[in-house]
Amino acid sequence: MKTLILGNEARVNKYRSYCQIPEDMELVFANPYLSDDEILAVCDDAEFIMSDPMGRVSGNLIANMPNLKLIHSEGVGFNGIDIEKAKELGIFVCNNQGINAAAVAEQTILLMLGLLRSVIIGDRQVRNAKQIEMKEKLMVEGIRELRDCHIGLIGFGDIAKETALRLKAFGCRVSYYSRRKKSQEEEEEYGVSYMPLAVLAKECDIISLHVPVTKETVNMINEDFLGLMKPTSYIVNTARGDIVDQEALREALEKGTIAGAGLDTLYPEPVCSDNPLLNLSEDSKDKILFSPHLGGITEGAFIRSHSTVWENITRVLKGERPVHIVNGVEKIRVK
After folding, report:
1. Catalytic machinery residues
2. Which residues pair with 81 in a beta bridge?
3. Is residue 23 part of a domain?
4. 326: in domain
5. What is the CATH number for 150?
6. Is there a cis peptide before residue 268, judged by omega within 30 degrees of 0?
7. Tens digit of pLDDT for each residue in 228-243?
8. Whether residue 195 sits in one domain with residue 244
9. How far is CA 101 from CA 66, 221, 222, 301, 314, in A?
10. What is the Cα Rg of the chain in Å?
11. Cβ atoms of residues 196 and 190 within 8 Å
């Protein structure tokens, strides 16, 4: 009995003591960025796959693993997994829905505050013994408090809800856009109000992205959307880099269409040195606050996510349905 781990061996070993891994389970590790043929040469007879959420599990790979019963994202993202091929073959695809929502919400707030408080320039100026010059400059330019900002959340899933709760504590006005308007009771619970997307773009001081990568959301933050925003507003992305048209964002920052961006993720990953957002002019480069896609990788999130993966594998071994199925498979595949 084998589980193919398309991810980091050290990370799995760090958290395995928190998990109930079946005693006779053999773990086989492979780099998630290998080709299909290279992965199959390592292990083509596994019954289970745990995949790095940024990795790729192609339809070809799935079709050439005859014993496969379950593919599980290590995290929340699963857009790299061919869920249609898995469904066609009766193979469960699961994710860890909501497992890191609180962690990513914290990162979202951090980026908002970092932009408003000019932390990049401030840190550098203090190190250059120019603390008082920076302080005097900001006292003239003005520092907005988070509670004085109107925040717009695009998407209203688990992470957006956790973000809304934290913004509620700051006293912010929070609006959201999603394909389905929430009930009045849910809006009151999270302290939010619905706005159409274009209105959200025009009125909010900070736009925060919380949608998955789909055909509809790829590059949804494009030239047209950015053109609706206020020149004093910010974009925060703790979702996926694919959601933002990076050339359009670069132009918006260079032209002053918006004030800045806080980005926990870029496209593609690993990030390449020729990414347009890494090559802004000297006048614009400090308008972006980057973090290395660490919003959801806290210890607590990994403990919860790895525990769920092994619990789901155990369920399948017992003939039970796993939780958080994302491809609509109803029954375990029978060979």
Report:
1. 240, 269, 293
2. 57
3. yes
4. no
5. 3.40.50.720
6. yes
7. 999 999 999 999 999 9
8. yes
9. 34, 22, 26, 9, 24
10. 22
11. no
